[in-house]
Amino acid sequence: MKIKDGNNAAIGERIKEIRLKQNMTQETLAEKVNLGSAQQISDIERGLCGLSVSKLIEFCKVLTVDADYLLFGTATRDAKNPLNRYFSQMTPEQSRCAENLVSAYAKSCNIN
Q: Would you kindly state where each structural domain of the chain is located, as residue ranges?
């Protein structure tokens, strides 16, 4: 199953951004994610083709990034995010209560 929903360009841009930050060539990335050539990486980065779920996982592992970031541009499990550090130390019940508090605060700020 390939991910093709019109967001291929955005996903490709994020892959390229991370690859460049890590000083990695397209050739190196292609080797690490078991793709045939740098041309395939170029096609992905330009949004000309999508990723299968298994390739998305490979990209996440190689680039050490959450799938949430590649797919949506948001790192929901970023350890540097103070809220995530707190949530990771909470019990499930504490986490639900904290989520309810944040949700109520967001609504009071007219954030849906």
A: 2-72, 79-112
